[in-house]
Amino acid sequence: MSTGPIRLTGTAHTALRPASAARITGGFWAERRRVNAAASIPQGPGKLEEAGNLRNLRAAAGAEPGGFSGDYQFQDSDVHKWLEAACWQYADAPDPVLAAELGRIAALLAAAQDEDGYLQTYYQLGRPDLRWRELAWGHELYCAGHLIQAAVAHRRATGQDALLAVAERFAGHIDATFGAGRGKAVDGVGGHPEIETALVELYRETGQRRWLSLAGYFLDRRGHGALADSLGTDRGHDRDPGAAYWQDHAPLREAPTVTGHAVRQLYLLAGAADIAAETGEPELRTALERLWSAMARTKTYLTGGLGARHEGEAFGDPYELPPDRAYAETCAAIASVQFCWRMALLTGEARYADLAERTLFNGFLSGVGLDGERWLYVNPLQVREDGEEAHPHSDQAARRTPWFRCACCPPNAMRLLASLPHYVASGASGASGASGAGGLQLHQYATGAYAAGGGAVSVETGYPWSGRIAVTVTEAPAGEEWTLSLRIPEWARSGQGAPAVLDGAPLDAASTPDGWLRLRRRWQPGETVLLDLPLAPRLTRPRPRVDAVRGCVALEYGPLVYCLEEQDLPGGVAMSDVRVDPDAPLAAERRPDLLGGVTVLTTGDLTAVPYYAWANRTDGAMRVWIPRQDG
């Protein structure tokens, strides 16, 4: 049974199930998670205190006088996301100091809750008469969703029920309020999806099917223009961004492509994937596969970033992917990873892990400073040397910031890093699954130990700096055939393939067009597979339809996208004047002294660094897509 963010029911209609045990113990991601645990998560309570989030809860609990503090209706959600992150971290490494902080904030949430179960301090302290009347911009259901996810994480991490009881009371209040039947006060949806995925997980945790039904109601109700009717009651929001902004323009099953606010769209898709997993509805699954394909093919940046437009934090038209005006919000990258993981479980297909890997190493990780204390809200692929800001608002500038007025991204990044081990491995749902007949699947490569599908493995690797991955079977069914499936990343599936060796005998990994190398045999504990992914610098050309980068190339190395930074250019050379000779040799050089230890790429007199590490030295020009000399 999974101890992570997703715990499928026994009747789920999925090809795969999350690993029952997962730990990252070394290597690249262990270091990023160490910084998350040592720097990022500990700074959370102080930042939430400074911003007024925790004071709002004390005021709602009657422990402190005063009204609402802060600029946004969704201030509470930052507390919930931090709490979820802290829970996953505690589950991985129990700590008495963290346990005390979890208990303090959980008790504060319980004290702030109204008698009828309602809990959102913006309305409790401001205008309780407007509860559920500002659905478009009020974020009440959004905050409820994050509270539920935090409560589920709290129970799985600590075994305690107190915070889950708070979440269930709020969910019960929502269930009594929303619906199309007699006695329901509201027949509508919130402007920001999130409640859907949370309610499904609450169903999985408690076994109460009413939560799954309520999630289905919110999914089915969206897309019928209901939010436009609530705009007139929303204080301070006289603009109408259009129904597509909050995915209210068409029912999800009929939508032709992803559109509108990127994070809203992706949270809705993640929730829909959870619903499809538990109901097995074919029409919903087909729609999800169609929407994911359209997104991956036409609206995803090379870094995995999503959201081309600053206005509305939104997806653009197909192939509208300007590098300098990219919004590519960190939260959108996080939501994409969550959506991809759910689709991987649903279908068993490796393509979802391919995009998740690209996003994790690039468009997500760029949002987190190497020190774990500075953040990017947006993640453009180009910053000009003249200082022009594509996003002049302080929260959205292309420079690292200790915190934001709209602080959705930092605690969101914390919770993904804290729960990352649970995105690495899975087990097949039945005797035969989409990724092979039973067994364990490795979707991502991180040194650690993983158990799933009736067996367990340990992984040792220097990935992404090294392509060598050693997978040792530590448990397997005695006397039975069992399948170990290794994902061959998309970038490694061309050319000579990925050599693999088992007990000194070579294995053919080139015959895996679907991305899986499946090894089915009677395994003995201690047997090791050595997989060598062909790491080499490469030039990547853009898709011809992406006008904004036509005539350019990008540098990549394994799963990593690279960029040029101003401080690494030859003296007197401006970023706007740089050109790359596509025929010049490319070389990789290990630099343990730079940016926490990285491999740099060189061509001619140019040196490129991993995109995830940009803006960690000084502010300045940066570029991913570089014009060709022959361009």
Topology of helices and strands:
Elements: E1 16-18, E2 21-24, H1 28-50, H2 53-60, H3 75-92, H4 96-112, H5 121-125, H6 140-158, H7 162-177, H8 195-206, H9 209-221, H10 262-279, H11 282-298, H12 330-347, H13 351-364, E3 382-383, H14 409-419, E4 425-428, E5 440-442, E6 448-452, E7 455-461, E8 468-475, E9 481-487, E10 500-502, E11 505-507, E12 516-522, E13 528-532, E14 537-540, E15 552-557, E16 560-565, E17 587-591, E18 598-603, E19 606-610, E20 622-623, E21 626-627
Parallel strand pairs: 5-9
Antiparallel strand pairs: 1-4, 2-6, 3-20, 4-5, 6-7, 7-8, 8-13, 9-12, 10-11, 10-13, 14-15, 15-16, 15-21, 16-19, 16-20, 17-18, 18-19
Number of strands: 21
CATH architecture group name of one domain: Sandwich
CATH hierarchy class name of one domain: Mainly Beta
- Average per-residue pLDDT, rounded, comes to 94
Strand content: 15-25%
Compute the CA-based radius of gyration.
Answer: 24 Å
Regions with pLDDT < 50 over 5+ consecutive residues? 431-437
Pfam families: Beta-AFase-like_GH127_cat, Glyco_hydro127C, Glyco_hydro127M
GO molecular function: hydrolase activity
InterPro entries: 6-hairpin_glycosidase_sf, Beta-AFase-like, Beta-AFase-like_GH127_C, Beta-AFase-like_GH127_cat, Beta-AFase-like_GH127_middle
Keywords: Hydrolase
Care to describe what's here?
This protein has helices at residues 28-50, 53-60, 75-92, 96-112, 121-125, 140-158, 162-177, 195-206, 209-221, 262-279, 282-298, 330-347, 351-364, 409-419; strands at 16-18, 21-24, 382-383, 425-428, 440-442, 448-452, 455-461, 468-475, 481-487, 500-502, 505-507, 516-522, 528-532, 537-540, 552-557, 560-565, 587-591, 598-603, 606-610, 622-623, 626-627. It is of the alpha+beta class and 631 residues long. Among the domains are: 425-532, Sandwich (Immunoglobulin-like), CATH 2.60.40; 537-627, no CATH class. Strand 17 and strand 18 (598-603) form a beta hairpin. Helix 2 crosses helix 3 (75-92), helix 3 (75-92) runs parallel beside helix 14 (409-419) and helix 12 (330-347) runs antiparallel to helix 13. The N and C termini lie far apart (54 Å). 54% of the residues are buried. Keywords: Hydrolase.
